[in-house]
Amino acid sequence: MQQDTAAAGNWLLSLENMAKSFGPVKALRQVNLQVKAGEVHALVGENGAGKSTLMKVLSGAHKPDSGNMYLNGREYKPGSPAQGRLAGIAMIYQELMLAPHLTVEENILLGLEKTKLGFLQNQKQQVHEALAWLGQEDLQPNTPVNQLSIGKQQLVEIARALVTDARVVIMDEPTSSLTAADAQALFGVIRRLKDKGISVIYISHFLEEVFGVCDRYTVLRDGETVATGNLTDISTPGLIRHMIGRSVDELYPAIPHELSETVLQVDNLVTQPYHKTISFALRRGEILGISGLVGAGRSEIIRSIFGLEKVHQGQVKIKNKPELQAIYLNPNQALNADLDLLSENRKEEGLALNLSIATNLTLSALGKYAKNGLLNLKKEQAGAADWMQQLQVKSQSPLAPISSLSGGNQQKVCIARLLHHDSDILFLDEPTRGIDVGSKAEIYRLIQTLAGQGKAIVVVSSYLPELLGICDTLGVMYRGQLSNIKPVKAWTEDDIMHFATSGMETAS
Amino acid sequence: MNITGKKVLSQFGPFLGLIFVFVLFSILCPPAFTSVYNIKTILTQSVIVGIAAFGMTMIIISGGIDLSVGSQIALGTVVIATVLNMGNTGAEMGFMWPLLAALAAIAACGVCGFIIGRFISRFTIVPFIVTLGMMQIARGVAKWIAKEQTVTTPPNWLQDLMLLDPQPEWLFFGPGVWITLILFVLVTILLRYTVFGRYVFAIGSNEQTARLCGIPVKYYKTAIYTFSAFFTGIASIMQYSNLTVGDPTAANGMELDIIAAVVIGGGSLSGGEGSALGSIIGALIMAVLRNGCNMLGLPNYVQEIIIGVIIVGAVLVDRLKHRIKA
């Protein structure tokens, strides 16, 4: 089956010396990528390293400036994503590309319908086979896709790839919005694809996943391939070193900070969707981590206290402020009471994407620049520029659109907004989601520095290593119920997982 | 790469369009087109749409839309006529009654705007539907008050607002044109240099972000629709001045001209974009087209086709600009 040609070697897919520029920006300089049949190949690199561009070139969405691609020994030159699909390259995008109102079957067959005199032919067999291959016999083909979880929707996309006889399936951050259980199911599916001889190119920021599910890796940095090999021959720090070009011994820096008096006391808070009673206290200088599975109600706690979500009852006591009934809280009051929140959804909620960096940065504290409702624009820009410099936001001007920044820099602007408002109690919801390792390290350092300055911080995260790395104390959530809050050192990863999955503290 | 350069270009895009149509018609039309008298005519003809477009600009930047402005304008003219007739003693009208009538029209539109804003923010119904309803309601109320007839009024100073040759002569343009200019400056300052204006942009660009940043979104939405309706009220005064009667069937379909002016001027129906300058230029482009086509003796349908093409073309140019930016 394999045809050997001098150029293609033994690879199912081979990309050689790919280059692509957008105007003056060289997104890809010198990229090589070789994928064997039936392997799971990890493509890693920081944001902006060129992974997405490379995949767009591979799927046919972008035309490369130079370089050659070979698929199955033959030259592969897709003119459009449709041609790429036809040639056997299937792309599963981060944002799913399904028609939400159509059924599973209709989505799987979309664009592939066989017709006779304009009438649809029965292709149930094909759909059934694909779903069976994925071990998803229980997925009803006539369910509308919008009634499925994100994990199941993703499987529908993969089933679609199977129906088109894909040879290579590209997955871009496939687990970023999945629950742990759905992620495990996905890994099972990936193994099945592998058994079928289908190659998977797996793009992810989660390196444990990469080590768990992938066979080989290729690291991109600044649009170049900097390393490739077997994952068994490399360690996590080794991989990170390739990704950022330097070593991150101190990904989680330890900046000394002291815990002092209580600044926030939450009593008997009852929120959606679980209606469980929650109480906790937060001290000045404390970094409190909240762990748990996706959907355990972690974000809901801090969002409710901040007034973004419905609260049924509860009292919130903030130091030096009168006691507040949580039912009546709104974000405006919360900000005035020295609370602030970093949203987990940067694009949907955190930022106004068609406004400038400065506007986004100062929006929660415009009063600083206003007199009788009139704004001092010069002063505002100077204020924004100052914070951009302090957080090393890479941009030419505070007036540049926020959409021109990379994910990491956008996140820094979100955090800068909190610092600019200068609340003493900060709720950070997934502060490092979707940003590269380098920016993550900067944000961890910043969180610790802030605690050192006497801020009280709650960090909600799905990523346990970072909570263990930067927090002083930790609580775990299970279906709306919060565990006892204990110093991080008193928790083991096993204890945390045990509570997160069962709601019971491990008897020791 | 040069941001200020790009800003200038995006600000002046509609302006270049205006110059283009003006130059085009100066070549095609008889010299009368560029006469002072005709330019006065064009400016005066764009007053009503222009003033209403200022209000619409704020609504569209905030991510909303108001389909009821045409009906509100009709309601305004009827309210003015009714109030004037209440004060009609057969003698000279004087200054106060017409002023009161004008304020009543602004208040009537303001009430419409307040109801729209409250409904949108309180019950989270999309603006399109709420204002579609208000379009019918305001039109119905206008007909009810006017008993389905035009309401004639005694002569008064409101009727002089849209004159081409005003008294005193040094005014040069009719008071309506000057009022438009003052409102333009006001709205520009409001949108660019005030907290209110910034919040309008923030709500339109991303309502969730606005909420996260502590902006009382519901309160502001009500304020935006009410405040914008004041501009509709002022536009209705100008409409009355043109007609000299209260007409419940006036300004039928004018909301579409007003929305078109905003869109031609760079306003985005998905919110977060738009400017008073763009909108008044949009209104002027349409006025120049209508005037030029009339002068060329082109039938009405030609104007309609051209304006349709310009609306879609303006948005297309805008999209292309965004694509280059991205």
Automatic annotation (TrEMBL), chain A:
The keyword Methyltransferase does not apply. Its main location: membrane. One of its GO terms (cellular component) is plasma membrane. It is found in: Cell membrane. SUPFAM superfamilies: P-loop containing nucleoside triphosphate hydrolases. Pfam families: ABC_tran. This is Sugar ABC transporter ATP-binding protein.
Automatic annotation (TrEMBL), chain B:
Signal peptide: none annotated. InterPro entries: ABC_transp_permease (IPR001851). GO terms for molecular function: transmembrane transporter activity. It is found in: Cell membrane. Its main location: membrane. It is a multi-pass membrane protein. Keywords: Cell membrane, Membrane, Transmembrane, Transmembrane helix. This is ABC transporter permease. The lineage of its organism: Bacteria, Pseudomonadati, Bacteroidota, Cytophagia, Cytophagales.
